[in-house]
TrEMBL record:
Name of this chain's protein: FAD-dependent oxidoreductase
Keywords assigned: FAD, Flavoprotein, Oxidoreductase
Domain FAD/NAD(P)-binding: 2-298
Source organism, top-level taxon: Bacteria
Required co-factors: FAD
Amino acid sequence: MVIIGGGLTGATAAETLRKEGYAGPVTIVADEPEIPYQRPPLSKGFLSGKEGEDALLPLAATWYGENNVTVLTSTAATAVDPAAHTVTLANGETLPYAKLLIATGASPRVIPFKGVELDGVHYFRSKADSVAMKELLSAGGHNLVMIGSGWIGMEIAATARELGNNVALLGLEDVPLSIAIGKQLGGVFAARHEEAGVKFVLPSSAAEIQGTDGKVSSVLTTTGEVLPADLVVVAVGVVPNIGLAKDAGLTINNGIEVTGSLATSDPDIFAAGDVANSLHPVTNAYARSEHWANAIASGKVAAKSMLGQDAVLDDIPYFYTDQFDLGMEYSGFGALTKDADVVVRGDLAAREFIAFWVLEGRVVAGMNVNIWDVQDAIKDLISSGRTVDTAKLADPKTPLEAI
Ligand SMILES: Cc1cc2nc3c(=O)[nH]c(=O)nc-3n(C[C@H](O)[C@H](O)[C@H](O)COP(=O)(O)OP(=O)(O)OC[C@H]3O[C@@H](n4cnc5c(N)ncnc54)[C@H](O)[C@@H]3O)c2cc1C
């Protein structure tokens, strides 16, 4: 069993292979110098210094040796030959496989802003990126311009501000996060940021990143503002790492197209995590999730499928974020929320509420902010597909289980 990609998906798949009793050889090919780590703390607790290295490890460093799993760190896979059942490595060696999992994740989207090559301009995906940024931000007093108003841009903005830096944030939305959760709810996060002193310049982008002596000094926005900057972080989404799969002739469709069991167009090759676009049995539509819970769930399903078991990725998508004192969890089918009505239970102004997206009388997604232990009930509302009384849904006195 060969796994390309030493992220959370790859680690979970290796662990599942062993848990399911597979005793043969397992190799993880990982191009980063680290053993597998998870990324959510990189823009939150690890960046702020509240969490250490341990928070990054889904499996203890000793687990791999104890379970006879080989991790080839700092080793990129450069080609997959489906006919020969081999993976070529950057050092020229080839690895044979019986079943292969491609879990190569995603990379930051690169936009050729003028001045993007200046010293002080950063992308943000890896542990190395977070370590470098922590060193820069922890002393405070920097002028950071964030480009990108999505989850990662907002998280880095919050952490940087908490560390005492000046933060301005640009993005293409009128309200941050509105593509994901709409303007009303994005506004709750925006208000918390503004209260903490984050300056939003929305909607806008960078017309030019300006510098002196090769180092960034300011950002000229497309709205004509000049924002002082000695640091710029570009966080404008990610693109799936499909190169190997494409070259191997696998079907590509917004990532590597896979069945509900995560099989690619080659029966011995599977794909999971951020790189995989899988057919979801509930929506009967393809969805590519770029979230932590999907890395775990799909890593498990892929491993079981590699072992010939009947496994399907049918989880309700889930993710979370932490920004200042706002903790949030979300479950549901984002693609179905576009035409849905939003029903709020609780107090938006107090930032303690659950928001439900209701489409044709049924809950298709739910998000709890600073209210806890309600995810099971939210997922049950979604998965049961039962019609709901929206007045009861909005009433905190009616238990969710009774709706
Ligand atoms: C800063 C940050 C914060 C996040 N916060 C949250 C959050 O709060 N909540 C949430 O739900 N999700 C969050 N996410 C998303 C979550 O981390 C991803 O969904 C998850 O990392 C996907 O795991 P993966 O293993 O599929 O991919 P990755 O984590 O990208 O791992 C893939 C690995 O494969 C390697 N690789 C690629 N090509 C090759 C090759 N040819 N050979 C060898 N190795 C290769 C890559 O270098 C990488 O190490 C966050 C992501 C980031 C970057």
